[in-house]
Amino acid sequence: MSSDPFDGRPGGFEYSTKGALTDFTTMFAGVLMLVSASFEILQGLSAIANDDLYAAGSDYLYKLDMTVWGWVHLVVGVLSAAVAIGILAGQAWAWLCGIIVVSLSMLTNFAALPHYPLWSLVVIAFDALIIWALCLQLGHKRP
Q1: Taking the CA of residue 71 as centre, how many other CA atoms within 13 Å lie in the half-sphere pointing to its CB?
Q2: How far apart are CA 32 and CA 70, in angstroms?
């Protein structure tokens, strides 16, 4: 007999309303993280392909080569996609890794605000929602 109270028996955590809400927010975070990763990858590829596109008219504290910055976005996007797949697969390690990778995404988009402000703000907002959903999952205490 299993000593785990959450082993799938009726009335356990997975059949509760809190369990359903937690599962939904985890899936929400995973899907939103895939969308955000796609944005990061597109951002990175466009900066790598045409670095003049983003460099025009920017006099900003963070003077960065846009091709290098494109590679940073591309790497963060690929990492985000890999962790999102882990979240959607239900891997517990992916929750904390997701918070870390999404925090990096927020920082890279903050530094890129003067080059493409609206796009960066959208990705930062998505990242904030992802962090909220993952923190809800991590902070949830099962009965």
Answers
A1: 4
A2: 21
Query: Distance (Å, rounded) from C-alpha 4 to C-alpha 64?
Result: 52
Q: Which residue positions in the chain have pLDDT lower than 70? A: 1-16, 18-19, 51-64, 139-143
Structure token pair of residue 94: 């992916």
Q: Are the beta carbons of 88 and 31 closer than 8 angstroms?
A: yes
141 in the Ramachandran plot: left (φ > 0), alpha (ψ -120 to 50) or beta?
beta
Q: What is the pLDDT of residue 85?
A: 94
Q: Which two tokens stand for residue 126?
A: 């998505």
pLDDT of res. 143: 43
Place of tokens 């517990």: 92
Single pTM value for the model: 0.73
What Å distances lie between residue 62 and 5, 50, 75, 97, CA to CA? 52, 19, 19, 27
> Scanning the structure block, which residue is given the tokens 């999102």?
84
Residue-level pLDDT at 114: 77
**Taking CA 47 as the corner, what is the angle to CA 45 and CA 49, rounded to the nearest 5 degrees?**
65
Tokens in use for 129? 């929602």
CA 113-116-121 angle, 5° bins: 60
